[in-house]
Amino acid sequence: MKPQILSLLIVAAFVLGIAGCSRESDKPIAEEATDSANTATDSVKKFAADAKDTGQTLAQEGAQQVEKVADAATTKTQQTIDRAKKLFDQNYYQEALTTLQGMRNLELTPEQQKMVVDLKARIQKVTVNAPASQLSQ
Hints:
By secondary structure, the protein is mainly α. It has helices at 2-21, 29-89, 93-101, 110-129, 132-135. The protein starts with a helix and ends with a helix.
């Protein structure tokens, strides 16, 4: 931003220099300088406002992208939990438990944490009470 402000000030000085050389105006030089400075200030303000708007837009787009990634991760995690439930329902207890243990490093929502804990408890209950022939499936 500093190079652009410097460029703008150089252009303003150049305009002032030209205005001083071609003294066809009835305005005093000080008034012309003030007008040029005001124009330059307005341009800098507009540039700053545009930069701010662009920054806000980029921040919003970035937040939306982060939200999409988080949603995708949550969906993937939910699919894994659903797969473990299906394995449990098909009496593949060890595979269901292995699937759930593979999720230990993932961040889960509170609802997902409850589902995982409940499913692990169900698997443990079944494996403790089930006959060995049922567990070998």
